[in-house]
Amino acid sequence: MPHKRILVLGGTGLAREAADVLVDRGFDTVTSLAGVTRKPHLPKGEIRIGGFDGVEGLVAYLQREKFDHMIDATHPFAAQMSAHAVAACDKTKTPLLRLEQAVWQAQKGDQWQDVATVDAAAEALLRNAKVIVTVGRKEIGVFFARPDLSGIARMIEPPETAAPPQWQVLLERPPFTLETEIDLLRASQAEILVSKNAGGPRATKLDAAATLGLPVIMVARPSKPAAPIVASLRELLGTLGLAG
Ligand code: NAP
């Protein structure tokens, strides 16, 4: 059994699963969290919480802690952290793997409009639209800034920008069942759903929207600097020299 030291950049359910499986396989694993979630579900292994203070801080941390690998398992939309990971691993010669699942693809029954950014999603909404927005706390502000929009903003942690009175903020954490998603979309009377293309197993909100014939504005992932990618835990373990 290799006694390797691994840094997992976390903040997602997949990162938690990765850390759990690496600990189970005997790796000395540290998961790093940004510290934005008040009560995070913690993985097995060691945890560190808070930013590194940019690339320089991450370089210093890597030089001090001497990891055999870094696994960037941050959310596909955490573009800054992923860019810092590439730069710092390059500088410290730390082998980097990005754990990134395949994007969601529209299927029969989906009515998706693809947009490049969250700002473009807000711009694409028709005047006075009633919407359900699931882009997260950091980027909900552009929707709140449009006084004609109303609806539900669902996120895990409270928004950075105060919600105008015509909005209801739903603080909920996945997983969500198809039944509860259908109930929510129906009860909200929303005319459209806004989602980021997080990818991985298809989200039940997308099936719920398709079931109800609700259109979806789908925000594409931001671009990130190139890094070796593994698309699943199985592929990750294989690349680390362990059978899935
Ligand atoms: P971001 O914009 O890429 O990063 C902003 C800063 O937060 C980074 O420069 C870094 O600060 C710190 N940071 C981010 N992830 C970190 C980690 N795993 N460990 C230590 N510091 C971290 O990230 P974000 O979009 O705000 O996301 C923050 C966290 O929430 C990430 O862990 C991400 O996986 C998770 N998350 C994000 C989304 C999303 O839609 N963006 C959705 C679900 C979960 P320093 O520069 O000080 O090092």
Summarize the structure.
This protein is of the alpha/beta class. It is built from 8 helices and 12 strands.
Distance between the termini: 15 Å
- From the alpha carbons, calculate the radius of gyration and give it in angstroms: 19 Å
- Counted beta strands: 12
Helix content: 25-40%
The shape is: elongated
| Main sheet specs | 6 strands, parallel
Named once each, the bound ligands are: NADP nicotinamide-adenine-dinucleotide phosphate
Low-confidence stretches: none
Strand order of the largest sheet: 3-2-1-4-5-12
Structural class: alpha/beta
Give the arrangement of secondary structure elements.
Elements lengths: L4 E5 L3 H12 L3 E6 L12 E4 L4 H12 L3 E4 L6 H14 L3 E4 L12 E4 L2 H7 L5 E4 L7 H4 L5 E6 L11 E5 L6 H11 L3 E5 L7 H9 L3 E4 L9 E2 L2 H7 L5
Parallel strand pairs: 1-2, 1-4, 2-3, 4-5, 5-12, 6-11, 7-8, 7-10, 8-9, 10-11
Helix pairs in contact: 2-3, 6-7
Task: Fill in the keyword field for this structure.
244 residues; alpha/beta; six-stranded parallel β-sheet; 8 helices; 12 strands; 31% helix; binds NADP nicotinamide-adenine-dinucleotide phosphate
